[in-house]
Amino acid sequence: MDKEAELQLRNAATNSSRNFDNKVKVSYNIWRQEFHHTNTDSTVKLMIDQIIMAKVYATIARSQNETDLFASLMKCIKESKAAIGDAHMDSELDSSALERAKAMGHVLSSARDVLYNSDEVSRRLRVMLQSAELNIDTAKKQNTFLVQHAAKTVPMPLHCLHMQLITDYHLRDGVIKEYFQAAALKDEEDKAKLEDRSLYHYAIFSDNVLAASVVVRSTVTNAKEPNKHVFHIVTDKLNFAAMKMWFISHSPRPATVHVENIDNFKWLNSSYCLVMRQLESARLKEFYFKAHDPSSLSDGTENLKYRNPKYLSMLNHLRFYMPEIHPKLDKILFLDDDVVVQKDLTPLWDVDLKGMVNGAVETCKESFHRFDTYLNFSHPKISENFDPRACGWAFGMNMFDLKEWKKRNITGIYHYWQNLNEDRKLWKLGTLPPGLITFYNLTHPLDHTWHVLGLGYDPAVDITEIENAAVVHYNGNYKPWLDLAVSKYKAYWSKYVDVDSSHIRHCYASKQ
Q: Of 398, 424, 472, 504, which sits most exposed with the smallest number of CB within 10 A?
């Protein structure tokens, strides 16, 4: 190239560089103040990424005896961690954070010049990734275990409430004695109501006084004719005195409440009730309580939810014996003790079940909550008798036609399948899987507004759906009486707690 052409080229390059705009529009750079926003987390993320790379280079430096570089990297890691602290947003960072990030950048640049080897760095990153995945898996198992443990634990105020009521029940002095006298008169007056087919009857099986009281109170509060509502509550021997005392001293008049002890059901024995024999078996107790069982924390989280005392309680299975408990009734509405009633439920008695035994809200959405979610379709007994795509439904609010129940021998069907599942090969524990089987092709779908579920596990339930629902259900571990409860759902339940009760004020005073 001659000198003139070279000069022209140089001048063109100079002019081009003078006119070059090195600002990239709408790009982000943490060092430019115009892009500094207090609600971002870019600097936090940058520093975390730097720490990860510094750890990679530190391990390589140590393996290659680069002691000075190793020391510099470890020092920067320590200082960056201190600068980040518990910050999640840039605005929460220590004032020295940017300087730490710059210092780390310089050390990383030096480390890259000395140590960088793409294969070695890739290998170290893979090791860190695998380690992180193992730590996440362990944390998930621990979280599942702790949530299950917290869900099974009786809160101290609730235990206090039970103890106070039991004490009152057995002492029966002063005002309590008057409660009993009034209750005895009312029981005599209400005796005929317990079998009156023209009234609205509810079945509640519970060992939780506070939960049962909310179910009854919310139902009566929203009923148009509360004097026509009869609640049949069955509890166990341990909680009978507390449950009885609560409804004696806090009678939801003009409604009727009848509390029974499950131990008084003489027909309920292991020779007739197969599940009772299974619940008492050594094999099932081993499944629950032996650490080497597959449901243990060390072996996985899949079956941890089944290690819950409710699955060993016969109260949980009484729903399959409705005609034995209520032989004179034609219809009864079953309510779980973790529901809240928000509307008058009497129109449910007018719903035509079209010859079906069970009226329930279906829960299937696309591929969720269908039969193959609950039952083992690799077993021929299941695959030959049921459709894996059949829609699941919910226990918690169910209208049972007891005349059809007897006609179709529903309890006999339940016994047949429960006997086949003694080794738990057809389904895991619980009452929904045998319920789906027992009421297969015998369930009438109710409108979804009758029963909205998920308040005990799903923080994303639509608020409009909740407020329009007749019954809301806290199914899951986050029960409203626990500290685990989803806070935004708790008010729907707590508004029906009788805060005027002296027992509740005393037992929950420390919670305020």
A: 424
